[in-house]
Amino acid sequence: MITSKETIGYYQSIESFALVDGPGVRSVLFLQGCNMRCLFCHNPDTWFLTKTNPITPDEAFNKLIRYRPYWQNHGGITISGGEPLIQLDFLIEFTALCKKAGIKTAIDTAGQPFTREEPFFSKFNKLLANTDLFLLDIKAINPIVHKKLTGKDNTNIIDLFHYLSDIGFPIWIRQVLVPGINDKEEDLKETGEFISSLTNVKRVEILPYHTLGVPKYRKLGIPYKLEGILPPTAEEIKKAEILLGIEKYQGYLKD
Fold first, then answer.
1. Per-residue b or e along 214-230, where b marks 16 or more CB atoms closer than 10 Å to that residue's CB
2. Backbone dihedral angles phi then psi of residue 104, each to the nearest 5 degrees
3. Per-residue pLDDT tens over the stretch 10-65
4. Alpha carbon of 140 to those of 36, 144, 236: distances in Å?
5. CA separation (Å) from 119 to 34, 35, 130, 177?
6. Nearby residues of 90 by Cβ (< 8 Å), 6 or more positions away
């Protein structure tokens, strides 16, 4: 049996079969904890680093390896959240186990914890050595809009994009699209230009705003601040795709 150190992670759930969380069929480990408070977040139950579901890297590995027959050639495991980079030590050890077993891994992140300061930066590079792909969300390119939408600055997030581009680490970019907030033409054009400046983008996708998480807010007693905002129309999504130049980025991470 593959073993690891007794580092403890905290997770919210596991999805055995997913088609939208990276290349091919994926199994997804959702970790707890996130510093951002995105107004559109559909998983507010993952915001807090609650310690009700502890798990070691080898325990997580042994839970997820059962689904390996689903993954076929281009699938694997995606670690999502919450914000998985909050639990960096757990990620390093878990992805090391996966790499040793020949399993492709992807990290679904908004990048907010990123810094070039130590000890985070050295640990982050260890994670990159074990990992095959980052799924990086762009909440908003405009820093004012980003702060309004997430409660956090995006300077370090933009730095993360630049760093991964500089070292050639492959990424998929997902642009969250919230009508009336981050869908202005000038902002999407700026985002498209930013994406074009990067050297490592394999795919770009639109994540349309939806209201599926609203019942969770009511259950948790958290005010939902986007009441009345409707999901983008097909025409609005198409316009955003054109402004972002999505057709240029339809590659997949290959073996």
1. eebbeeeeeebebeeee
2. -75, 135
3. 999 999 999 989 999 999 999 999 999 999 998 899 999 988 899 999 999 999 99
4. 13, 9, 16
5. 19, 19, 18, 34
6. 7, 8, 9, 31, 57
Of 144, 197, 152, nearest to 173 by C-alpha is: 197
120, two tokens: 């985070």
For residue 220, what are the CA distances in angstroms to 56, 124, 146?
28, 33, 24
**What are the structural domains of the chain?**
9-248 (3.20.20.70)
Residue 25's CB: how many other CB atoms inside 10 A?
19
Q: What are 233's two structure tokens?
A: 């129309």
pTM reported for the whole predicted model: 0.93
Helix (H) or strand (E) holding 214: helix 214-220
